[in-house]
Amino acid sequence: MGKRAKRAALAAGALTLTAVTAATGLAASANAAPLATISVSNVSITSMNLVNVKGTLTNPGVLRGDYGFSGSASWVMKPNANVAYGSTWFFWGNRTDTAAFWPGMDSLGTWHAYPLGHATDGNGQTVGQNTATFYIRQGSRLSLSASRSGPYVTLTAHATRYNDRLDYGLRGAWQAWPRHSVAIQVLSGHTWKTVASRATSARGGVSYRVSSPSARSWRAQDAATGTIWGATSGTIRR
After folding, report:
1. pLDDT tens-digit series, residues 171-208
2. How far apart are CA 4 and CA 101, in angstroms?
3. How far apart (Å, rounded) are the C-alpha atoms in residues 51 and 71?
4. Which listed site, 53, 61, 63, 218, has its alpha carbon 20 to 30 Å from 141?
């Protein structure tokens, strides 16, 4: 076989392989099992009342059968897979449901929605399910006040957080958030820029004095931890 014939044969083989690969990929995509997905809202704990954690079935159509019948899907709420129990979300014709979180009793931090059992559509066929991650943390607040003396502005911030672990979780209260970094920020154009970061005192307060001959817009901001949400103060112009 001459060189031209060999090249032609190789090219034809490559085209055939490409066509087979493409067809196989399309078939795999067409036969891929549908996936029911849940989205869960983050939670901020600000009282000792039972919290109804909202879960939303984002694509309820995957549970419907050929004749309009709805299948079902459920997820269980756990901080990790090793926990043996948890509140559940159940979907059967509904798009939203709630699961229970008890402040002071259930753990704070990262939570997951794990598939519970097997989901099926209205035809009785098995439907896959996702695992969603969300966060439950104590709420926090950050206030800011300002005073001017000549060209200097003194900014005072105060951080508090809700503690739901008092008396072994039997009660909760808003308390000072000590030893937590607070950023003092100024509005520059359309961007907030940090001019100083200070750790709060035992009473949750922090103060910063800055030279600012003309009035500017100020705010304070602190970051979240694994168990407490961060906060942003209101804006003050001084």
Report:
1. 999 999 999 999 999 999 999 999 999 999 999 999 99
2. 73
3. 28
4. 53
Alpha carbon of residue 118 to chain centroid: 25
Q: How far apart are CA 228 and CA 165, in angstroms?
A: 12
CATH 3.40.50.2300 fits 35-138, yes or no: no
Q: Which residue has the tokens 């969603």?
A: 132
Residues of the chain with pLDDT under 70: 1-33
> pTM here?
0.83
Assigned fold of 140-237:
Immunoglobulin-like (2.60.40)
Adjacent-strand bridge partners of 137: 44
Domain ranges of the chain: 35-138, 140-237
Are domains 35-138 and 140-237 of this chain identical in fold? yes
For 186, the enclosing helix (H) or strand (E) is strand 181-188
